[in-house]
Amino acid sequence: MQPENGREMTTTDPIQATGSTSDAAPERSAPIDHSVPGAGFVTTSLTTARRSILQFFRTPQLLMMGTIQGALFLFMFRYVFGGAIRSGGALSYVDFLVPGFLVTVILWSGMGAAAGVAEDSSSGVYDRLRSLPIPRVAVMVGRSLADITLVAWGMLVTGALGFLLGFRTHGRISSVLLGFVLMLIAGYAFTWVFITIGLISGNAQAAQGMSMLVVPFSFISSANVPIKSMPGWMQPFAANQPISVIINAVRSLMQGGTHVVGIGHTTAYWVVLSLVWSAGITLVFSALTTLRFSRSK
Fold first, then answer.
1. What Å distances lie between residue 63 and 69, 125, 141, 291, CA to CA?
2. pLDDT tens-digit profile of 90-130?
3. Which domain holds residue 130?
4. Which of the 8 DSSP states describes residue 84?
5. Average confidence (pLDDT) over 160-173
């Protein structure tokens, strides 16, 4: 190309087109700023929780099956087995049964949580989340927050049904409310157990099967019968496993004390021990969940 001033210049020369080497370099080699953070812990947790809760509503079978299942088992124990079982204390069987049954809802509701986590894991949802600049532990925290809402729904429906079947509390209102709070704390702890199961299982069907390994804790406990009625070799395990400890605390809070329920120690003893168990389960299984989720497949 021949310009007007007589000098030869090509239009493809980037240095002459832009002016100088120092002016062009920043455009060609501008570094990528890796310091820009992604979503924070709270935002990630709440967003993940919202997504899971929306999944619950889009799959009403999760809500309906948990409700129907709880109603069937409560009805069965109340009217089929209730006439043959003695509570061992000053309580009628229905007043003895319902607090324990409310605690076992934690386990029955958790089975669906394990299947949901396994489905998200096998479908690649978690692989996509791992690639984002977000705290990985926050993803699992969000899932646990969503799952505890499912547990709370199950306890609400079961509690209402229990009142329809004749259940009555004999403790103070504050103690009854504390009992529900304690169940929510314990429920949150056990959601981490089922999240762990969901992550290590290959698919939703396997997660459902593995979750059944936790269900015996609800039967080998003080939920449905007094531990004194069990064989001697079984009683130490049944009396000291976490579900029985939580049941003893909730039952004592709702029914007016350990002397009414027919167990030893004090209500405060069982409440503190329940909180210790809940904290320990949360710490152990949240750590296992975080390590498993952070590991790329």
1. 10, 22, 21, 30
2. 788 899 999 999 999 888 887 778 888 888 888 888 888 88
3. 39-294
4. G
5. 91
